[in-house]
Amino acid sequence: MKGGENMPKIDYNKLRGKIAEKGLNQKDLARKIGVSEGQFCKKLSGEYAFKQSEIVRICEVLDINTAQIGDYFFTT
Length: 76
What we know:
Blueprint: H1 13-21, H2 26-33, H3 37-44, H4 52-62, H5 69-73
Helix pairs in contact: 2-3
């Protein structure tokens, strides 16, 4: 799903912080969830939306509790 003007801009700073806290970089996390680094970067920049399956996998890798998903993926 490509982003557009009708989609709110999501703030992924908390997610970026969690990636660093776990000692990973974007390339590492992209590999662990099965997407290319370029695709992951486009999603993190808001150009494309994360798929539900990607969000689940990111939460598993980063130990994000399901109750906190909104804080990492849906905060504008």
